[in-house]
Specification:
mainly alpha; 299 residues; 77% helix
C-alpha cells in the first residue's frame, strides 16, 4: 500500500478490520460452549497472539512496553477485561442484534466520559446524539420480554441487554483512558486484558471440554479474528479522522447479525430493528456532521 493516499489506506485497513471482526458473534454461536469457557479461551488466545506479536516485533523491549503503559494502561486493561466478559454474557442471554446495537453506542458514552473526567467540551450535536442513541437503546431493551432469568424476576433477554449496555460503558471508559496512553501502550493493554479475562474465567470454565471442531474454530477466533482485526482497526485512526473510523465501524452492527441470520436463522425482533435503525441513524448522522466539520477549510 506504499503508493496509496492516506485516506485510501485508512479505508482499506479499517474496512478489513471490520470485515474480519464481523463473524465474531457467529463463531461464538457456532462454537456453542458455556460462557465461562468461551471467555477463558478468547482471553487466553488473544493474550498469546498479541504477546507473541509484540515479542517478535520488539524483542527484549517487550517487558518495557508493559511497564511504560503504567497505571493508566492497567486501568485500560481492567475496563477492557470487564467489557470482554460482559460481551459474552450479553450474547449468552440476548440476541446478537440486540448486543451489537447497544454496544455500538460506546463512542457516545466515551464522549460523555471525556467531558466528565477529562474536561473536554461536548458539542450540542454530541449531546443530541447521546439522547437519540439512548432512545434507540430504550426501544431495543423494551422488546426484551423473554423467559425468566434464574428466578430473579427479570426476563433473561433483559439481563443480556443490560450486560450489553455495561459492555458499552466499559468500552467507553477504556477508550477515554486510551486517549492518555501512548499508541504503543494499547497493545500491552489488550494483551493484559486477555490474560485477566482468562484468569477470571478459569475457575468457572471447562476449557478442555471442546471437541476437535470447536477447538479449530476457537483457534481461528482467538488467534486470527480477534487480534488481527484489533490491530487493523487500531491502525485506522493513523490515516482517517475519528468520525470516519466510527462510520466504518458501524458496519459490524449490520454485518454481525446478518451473518448469524444467514447461517443460523436468528432473526432480529421488530423492536431491535426499529431501535437499531434509530441508533445507527443517529451515529451515522453524528459522524457525518463531525467529518464535514473536520474537512471544512479554516477561515
Amino acid at each position: 500500500m506504499q503508493g496509496l493516499p492516506d485516506h485510501v489506506k485508512g479505508v482499506l485497513v479499517t474496512g478489513a478490520g471490520v470485515l474480519l471482526i464481523s463473524p465474531d458473534t457467529l463463531l461464538v454461536r457456532v462454537i456453542a460452549i458455556d460462557q465461562w469457557s468461551m471467555i477463558f479461551w478468547r482471553g487466553a488466545l488473544v493474550a498469546l497472539s498479541l504477546g507473541a506479536f509484540m515479542a517478535l516485533r520488539h524483542g527484549r523491549e517487550t517487558p518495557a512496553l508493559f511497564r511504560a503503559a503504567g497505571m493508566n494502561g492497567l486501568w485500560v486493561s481492567l475496563f477492557l477485561t470487564a467489557g470482554s466478559i460482559l460481551f459474552i454474557v450479553a450474547l449468552a442471554h440476548t440476541s446478537v442484534a440486540n448486543t451489537l446495537i447497544i454496544v455500538s453506542a460506546a463512542p457516545l458514552f466515551a464522549a460523555l466520559f471525556s467531558r466528565v473526567f477529562l474536561a473536554e467540551p461536548v458539542s450540542t450535536r454530541t449531546w443530541a446524539a447521546i439522547l437519540g442513541a439512548m432512545a434507540g437503546i430504550a426501544v431495543v431493551v423494551s422488546g426484551s420480554a423473554g423467559g425468566s432469568a434464574g428466578g430473579s424476576g427479570l426476563p433473561n433477554s433483559l439481563w443480556g441487554d443490560l450486560a450489553a449496555l455495561a459492555t458499552a460503558v466499559c468500552m467507553a471508559a477504556g477508550l477515554t483512558l486510551i486517549r492518555r496512553t501512548r499508541a504503543r501502550g494499547v497493545f500491552p493493554a489488550l494483551a493484559l486484558s486477555g490474560l485477566l479475562s482468562a484468569l477470571i474465567a478459569l475457575p468457572l470454565a471447562a476449557p478442555f471440554a471442546l471437541d476437535a471442531a470447536q477447538a479449530g474454530l476457537m483457534a481461528l477466533l482467538g488467534l486470527v479474528v480477534l487480534p488481527v482485526s484489533a490491530v487493523l482497526i487500531l491502525l485506522g485512526p493513523r490515516y482517517l479522522p475519528a468520525p470516519e473510523v466510527g462510520l466504518i465501524l458501524l458496519l459490524e452492527t449490520v454485518l454481525g447479525p446478518y451473518w448469524v441470520w444467514l447461517a443460523l436463522g436468528e432473526d432480529p425482533s421488530a423492536r431491535a430493528l426499529l431501535g437499531g435503525a434509530i441508533v445507527i441513524g443517529v451515529l451515522v448522522l453524528h459522524s457525518a456532521l463531525a467529518l464535514r466539520g473536520e474537512r471544512r477549510p479554516a477561515g
